[in-house]
Design brief:
CATH class of the largest domain: Alpha Beta
CATH superfamily of the largest domain: NADH-ubiquinone oxidoreductase 51kDa subunit
Number of strands: 17
Distance between the termini: 53 Å
Shape: globular
Largest sheet: 5 strands, mixed
Bound molecules: iron/sulfur cluster
Oligomer: single chain
Order of helices and strands: EEEEEEHEHHEHEEEHEHEEHEEEHHHHH
Helix content: 25-40%
Number of helices: 12
CATH topology of the largest domain: Rossmann fold
Radius of gyration: 23 Å
Number of domains: 4
CATH architecture of the largest domain: 3-Layer(aba) Sandwich
Strand content: 15-25%
Length: 410
Amino acid sequence: MDVSLPKQSVLLIKKSANGEGMPALSSGESIKTGGKISDAEGKLLAYSPVTGTVAEIYNLPRVDGDFTAVDVNTSENDVWDENCRGIDNYFDREPGALVSLLCDSGFALDIRKDERPDAVILNCLESDLLVSINRNVLAEYGDTIRRGLRLLKRISGSDIVIIAVPGDLRDFAEKVAVDGSERIAVVDLLKPLYPFGMKEIIPRALSRKGIRRPLVITPEYLNSIIVFLEHGSPPVHKFITLIDRNNVRINMKVRIGTPISHILREGNIKISELDKLVLGGTMRGKSSFHAEFPVTADIDAIMVQDRDAVVTLGNEACVNCGKCIGVCPNKLQPHLLARYSEFSLFERCRDYDIDYCIECGLCAYVCTSRRALVHYIVFAKKELAKMAKEGDHAIESDNIGEGLACHPVK
Ligand code: SF4
Ligand code: SF4
């Protein structure tokens, strides 16, 4: 389902750690779809997802970081920016130059000259339960994906290209894997088990072992790269799965910046008081406190949970049953991480490899005491990051006036 343009759109731009991320825009200014939004130094921050007039720009602090919000009154006349032009003969360009061009254009492609990926993995599993984006993009945009895989093979320098799919997508994957008489990828069938679709886990789930530094990419992302190269259109759309309170799903194509309330209306979903609105799937989604929050590039699903189905996590004591340890895909000790976080012993969390937690949510899902394990872990990660930042500042101020000071890291 194609979601119509909203009357008002909200573009969220994440600020960097040092507070950068303020667009060189002012209220009343006109913007066009696909137009670059840059800061005062000309650094690309985002692309405008709509045509319209900037209504307001303001700071928006959130749990997951600080953002600049750009409210845009959307015009019904959707006009693409005249600078949105495809790149001639992009396939024949020198690989390093093409990777730089894509990175400068806002695509995060981890291809380095000194450390090339040893495999390209097209991850067609989903990021969370009940999400069904990647399977649909693979089925609908197979030709574009095939061209994308050829390109990635060339610019990454890797001979191994794997399409990781659940068994029911085998035929689609095989069509994508073969170009004329040439096979460009192998198809690896995986059980659609959570959390295999997470990029940190999928290399381990494959039948081919020994892959150490893969380039993992989803069909949606690869499709957006090729559309950008061939037509010049930056990724202003997002595919999402809308999940209602009975787990009925609709797949939607929606402009980034569209308020969730607009999507719920188009999906004919009403929310009642105390229902829970979740951005993301059942395991990793985050609650939203109001329906005017906009769709961002990292939201794969919008889910409405009935008020009676909402599970309340609490602060009950851990009974040391060990279930959370058994289920953790990274063999961590979630009960200890949560306990250290609860008592502000954040440094101890480091001793227990907190950085390896991928926030899959499985530990909290099985917890006998319904402890908010992931919340504690995320809180500890944030506190540790804050402490590291303050440590950096302390080192900087220690160094003032001392020339080449070599203070130990605090
Ligand atoms: S969220 Fe829990 S189960 Fe998942 S990786 Fe982190 S500690 Fe392990
Ligand atoms: S599952 Fe919950 S109760 Fe059991 S050990 Fe882990 S944190 Fe404790």
